[in-house]
Amino acid sequence: MAETTATALPKGFRGAELGWPKLHRIPHPPHRIPFVGDVLGADPRRPLQDSMRHGRRLGPVFRRKFFGREIVFVWGGRLVADLSDESRFAKHVGLGVANLRPVAGDGLFTAYDHEPNWQLAHDVLAPGFSREAMAGYHPMMLDVAERLMDRWDAEQAAGRAVDVPGDMTKLTLETIARTGFGHDFGSFERSRPHPFVTAMIGTLTFAQRRNVVPGPLSPLLLRGAARRNEADMAYLNRTVDEVVRDRRAADGEGDLLDRMLRTGHPVTGERLSPENIRRQVITFLVAGHETTSGALSFALHYLSRHPEITARAREEVDRVWGDVARPGYEQVARLRYVRRVLDESLRLWPTAPAFAREARHDTVLDGVHPMRRGAWALVLTALLHRDPEVWGADAERFDPDRFDARAVRARPAHTFKPFGTGARACIGRQFALHEATLVLGLLLRRYTLRPDPGYRLRVAERLTLMPDGLRLHLDRAAAAPPAPPVLTEAPSPARCPVTGAHD
Ligand code: HEM
């Protein structure tokens, strides 16, 4: 049983009944069953989509109970804006994120807010996402994208459809491995996913299953899965240890791994410990590719279904890039419409679909719901992004023009949160956006995408989201008439990769 003292918060899972004194004000699904809770009709493989279904019926704040564990979910625009107030709320490490602690420990993503290694690693690694660092990664991103296109050319010539999520995962894994760690997994030379990817998917899926399998029964129900998970974690650790060993023996390349190994804190000079470096490398290899791969896959799905949007995006690529074979770093940020396609895909399917916030001290959410210090709620980004009060009655429709500058300015703050919020927002946001915009630009220029007419979007969940079984047919796009590249529009000014990230 959890214990509370004046200073320490209870350890382990903190159910809503501990922290929300007026919990009865928050609706829950009908037909709650004693002991088991709100499990009627639940799909354990799609917990997010289940919660979306309930949220649509129950409203902007609701609760669900699974085997005695009660959770508050929030998705209404006003409530999320309140939870984004950094002076009252902080990141809560719970559920799936806490389940990743055995493998990622106090790495940047899974660190508790109060752990000293979070600030240390943040300060050491943030310069690795500066504009200057990003410009250095750009040619490597291009090299990897060219390897993807070699593969897609061959598939197209053979008349075969391409496996979009599979190939986007290869692309994004190779990109983060190469740019962050000078490592090559050889994904494009393999017919099956690299064992690192298989082990990573295993640990993510296991972390998600531990959310939905009742605590007391989990040792029994998940015995086999837990054993496989041990093996997956051991494989991830071995792979990372090899990457680090190779680098220790070689000269630095000025990348993320170099920062981890050789750079001290800008003020104190303190270094990351070897154990923490192992955690960070796993964190970046996983967080740095899985979500971007999903974002690219959803964007390609929507492009294949909307020829008029594709034509507009392609016209922009031709106009902005002209016929340069390898677009420069600055030319990527100028693809404003392509970027809107990406934003709109992340709106409908934010590939990290939820994040948790906890009260720093006793407070009242939205002036209505009292919360004790440490009480927390799960923000359902995927529903926030479909709130009709914010996005209109046609919120389910794919429309990149929702992200033109005027429309963005007209919306309230904190209504688009695919990268989380506050100090713990995604450190890799600019990295992901640059990589994905570059790759979409290159693919739009080279191919026309033909959907499989029988395909209906199914979304697979393993903490992150991915279009399940998406395959596309490719035709080579006709070359555009040569046009001079446009160089007049100024790129957006540099800004902090993290603090400027959340709106
Ligand atoms: C489209 C791609 C991406 C999406 C949608 C995404 C989303 C997110 C979200 C929602 C969070 C906050 C999670 C929370 O509050 O619990 C986060 C944190 C984080 N992301 Fe990303 N991410 C993406 C790409 C990347 C990339 C490319 C990297 C690294 C190169 C990365 C590294 C991280 C790290 C290290 C954190 C933890 C930051 C901290 O707590 O200080 N992400 N991401």
How would you characterize this protein structure?
Belongs to the cytochrome P450 family. InterPro entries: Cyt_P450, Cyt_P450_CS, Cyt_P450_E_grp-I, Cyt_P450_sf, Cytochrome_P450_Monoox. It is a single chain. Strand 1 (61-66) and strand 2 (69-74) form a beta hairpin. With 503 residues, the protein is of the alpha+beta class. Helix 15 (307-321) crosses helix 21. The strands form four sheets. A five-stranded mixed beta sheet has the order 1-2-8-5-3. A three-stranded antiparallel beta sheet has the order 4-12-9. Strands 6-7 form a two-stranded antiparallel sheet. The two termini are 39 Å apart. The chain is 47% helix and 11% strand. It contains 21 helices and twelve strands. The longest helix is centred in the N-terminal third of the chain and has 27 residues, at 131-157. The protein folds into two domains: 16-109 and 355-379, no CATH class; 121-352 and 398-501, Orthogonal Bundle (Cytochrome p450), CATH 1.10.630. Mean pLDDT is 90; it is low at 1-6 and 486-503. Bound molecules: protoporphyrin IX containing FE (HEM).
